[in-house]
Design a protein that fits this description.
alpha/beta, 2 domains, 8-stranded mixed sheet, Rossmann fold, about 400 residues, single chain
Length: about 400
């Protein structure tokens, strides 16, 4: 199995669920919205749709919002037989702006009409356009730009993962592309049951003011892997992270953090931690960079925001104590809480929360503790992390 397949494995048609097959078999000549929760298979189905279109000699453009998701999709497409630049073009909007205007732009929302014309003339002419994480874009971008780049459009989206202030709604997208079919994916295929219960329980308590979910919560979970969410109380977070990584050597690992300052701190600490190469994405005052390469299995360190659309076998979320300096934590805003939810949903097998001491950060108040395993590491608790951890997959 190639490394690309370890990051995102495009299944055979027989391996798709009934609802996924319905999306796969939908007409390639018609507009389509693929709506589904985290881990429901939107990106995989978008790639499979692209592969179908390429087989019909169609010119395909695949658009993402973030650079990390662009890199992830690029490697996945190449790993499954698509030649980027010939069979398919994969772009993220900031880079599209640079190709046309000579500079990166955070958003295409407010560009002038003349700039829109330049962009459409330069980047248009596709038979099909596929937009992943569509909820990150404003309706004006769909109306003024995306709609004009190609003939047939596929939009993948999930309102629960909206991390930016936009006016996106599926109803508005339907008006832009009418006629368009709206297909829902109701199951999660990425998260094991305990992790799905943990993340969904957090979302329900935080955003829907619902009581803690119980063991009988109805979750449409397709992943039968017996994974777990674990809260680790460790006086040495870096040592704990190193041990977790070393015992997941054959897995993809993501270390997800609230902001760039936190990414830099953990990256610097792990660089001398004896685990080999780690890859990161952060930018601070012109410093930092993006070394993430999804053709390798090296651990990836990035913000919650950057991880959206990506998946990892094991997700590690450290720095959960409230005693850190404020520049290591975002304020407890709805946007950042949604980003924390997104970070949890990246896990395919194992989800680890780590904190060195109490009190915990505000987000943890909303995590349903009945689904969490608790471990303690440190003085007066255990001599080493090996004394209490069974690192076999739970």
């Amino acid at each position: 199995m190639s490394n690309a397949s370890k990051w995102i494995d495009v299944p055979s048609l027989n391996a798709l669920s009934r609802e996924q097959r319905e999306v796969y078999s939908y007409s390639l000549d018609s507009n389509l919205i693929i709506n589904g929760a985290a881990g429901s298979g939107k990106t995989i189905l978008a790639l499979m749709r692209a592969m179908q279109l390429v087989k019909k000699n169609k010119k395909v453009l695949f658009i993402t919002y973030t650079k990390i998701l662009h890199q992830f999709t690029l490697i996945a497409a190449q790993g499954h037989g698509l030649e980027v630049g010939r069979d398919i073009d994969i772009e993220y909007t900031s880079e599209m702006a640079k190709k046309v205007f000579g500079r990166h732009m955070a958003s295409l929302e407010n560009i002038s009409d003349s700039m829109v014309e330049r962009l459409v003339n330069k980047m248009g002419g596709y038979d099909a356009v596929i937009i992943d994480e569509g909820q990150d874009f404003s309706i004006s971008v769909f109306q003024r730009i995306f709609k004009r780049l190609g003939n047939v459009h596929t939009v993948c989206c999930d309102d629960k993962q909206s991390l930016y202030e936009t006016d996106f709604t599926r109803e508005m997208v339907q008006r832009v592309y009418e006629p368009i079919k709206d297909k829902n994916l109701d199951f999660t295929y990425r998260n094991p049951k305990k992790i799905a219960q943990t993340s969904m329980g957090f979302f329900m308590k935080k955003f829907e003011s619902m009581a803690p979910v119980d063991e009988d919560i109805t979750l449409k979970v397709y992943n039968e892997y017996n994974g777990a969410a674990t809260m680790i109380h460790s006086i040495n977070e870096i040592q704990t992270i190193v041990k977790l990584i070393k015992n997941r050597a054959e897995n993809t690992v993501g270390i997800l953090l609230p902001n760039n300052q936190a990414v830099k701190m953990i990256t610097d600490s792990l660089s001398v931690g004896g685990i080999g190469t780690v890859e990161y994405k952060y930018y601070i005052n012109g410093g930092g960079g993006n070394t993430c390469n999804f053709s390798t299995l090296n651990p990836k360190i990035m913000t919650y925001h950057s991880a959206k659309g990506i998946q990892f076998d094991s997700v590690i979320i450290p720095l959960l104590s409230n005693n850190y300096e404020t520049d290591l934590w975002f304020s407890n805003t709805p946007e950042e809480a949604r980003a924390f939810y997104v970070a949890m949903t990246r896990a395919k097998k194992n989800l680890y929360f780590i904190h060195p001491e109490d009190p915990l950060c505000p987000y943890t108040d909303f995590i349903p503790k009945q689904f969490i395993k608790t471990k303690q590491v440190g003085e007066n608790r255990a001599r080493t992390i090996d004394d209490i951890f069974d690192f076999g997959d739970d």
